[in-house]
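Q: I'm building a small set of examples for a reading group on sequence design. Run inverse folding on the following structure and report the sequence directly after it, with nothing in between.
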């Protein structure tokens, strides 16, 4: 059967160097391939897509996530939502969040899945509980960061690759250590991999710097110390204020970001004694490999 007509979306730019906000959309209604294709086209063009005012339960949100590719079970299995192993609870209200290393383990620039053989393509964060102050997520535009390099710098970056392992990258000042791998089983699930420092997007064709935080620990074409310096310089360039958007969540926000074109970072938050606390925060996280069905058909 053909798709029913897609909902008429309202689309507006974020108050940021990149990204768009979508309104007039209820994801409890008809989610079809045409709607997801339209949303995906917006996402790939603008890097970040914020869908406002959603009211979904676990099953509805999970169904929405399934439309974007193959859902991923994160290596940190102790963050998974019971009954939904591909969904993670990111917040500060649960017993696991008393541990600061878990609660603030994403307070550093990173690219989801940069340490995996199959790259993560899209991550989405659904705001279920939002603090009155704090708890924002920072995003950067790795396409603009690449485009503003000098031509010689671009060619150098394109000629280089990095080895990645979960949590192995050097931290910049002010960044928090990565949420830890706790078992040998978790470590064996993500062996070291090699990734390019510049990636051409399979959908849009644009080039972007890739995976400069959390996991790269060696530039293959450089001695260790020189490679460490080089990675630090590229990361500092890519996270300058002109490339960064700071998202403050409203209840019901679903924020999707293109992991092939962005990095992101959490911001520190204290433990909340209950979901009613002024600083309480809970995000449901889903990530995918691959692309939505209609986008995949374009790729052949």
């Amino acid at each position: 059967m053909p798709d029913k007509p897609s909902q008429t979306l309202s689309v507006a730019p974020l108050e940021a160097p990149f990204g768009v906000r979508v309104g007039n959309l209820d994801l409890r209604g008809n989610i079809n391939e045409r709607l997801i294709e339209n949303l995906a086209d917006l996402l790939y063009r603008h890097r970040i897509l914020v869908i406002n005012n959603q009211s979904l339960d676990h099953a509805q949100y999970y169904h929405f996530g399934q439309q974007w590719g193959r859902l991923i079970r994160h290596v940190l299995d102790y963050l998974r939502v019971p009954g939904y192993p591909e969904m993670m609870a990111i917040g500060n209200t649960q017993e696991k969040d008393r541990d600061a290393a878990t609660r603030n383990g994403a307070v550093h620039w990173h690219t989801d899945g940069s340490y995996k053989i199959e790259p993560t393509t899209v991550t989405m964060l659904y705001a279920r509980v939002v603090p009155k102050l704090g708890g924002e997520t920072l995003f950067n535009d790795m396409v603009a960061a690449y485009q503003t390099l000098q031509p010689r710098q671009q060619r150098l970056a394109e000629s280089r690759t990095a080895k990645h392992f979960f949590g192995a990258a050097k931290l910049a000042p002010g960044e928090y250590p990565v949420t830890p791998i706790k078992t040998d089983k978790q470590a064996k699930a993500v062996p070291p991999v090699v990734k390019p420092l510049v990636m051409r997007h399979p959908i849009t064709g644009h080039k972007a710097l890739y995976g400069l935080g959390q996991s790269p620990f060696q530039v293959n074409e450089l001695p260790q110390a020189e490679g460490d310096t080089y990675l630090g310089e590229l990361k500092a360039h890519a996270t300058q204020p002109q490339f960064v958007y700071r998202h403050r969540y409203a209840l019901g926000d679903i924020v999707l970001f293109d992991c092939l074109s962005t990095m992101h970072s959490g911001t520190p938050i204290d433990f909340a004694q209950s979901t009613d606390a002024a600083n309480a925060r809970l995000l449901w996280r889903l990530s995918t490999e691959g692309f939505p069905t209609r986008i995949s058909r374009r790729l052949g």
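Residues 224-238 form the longest helix (15 residues).
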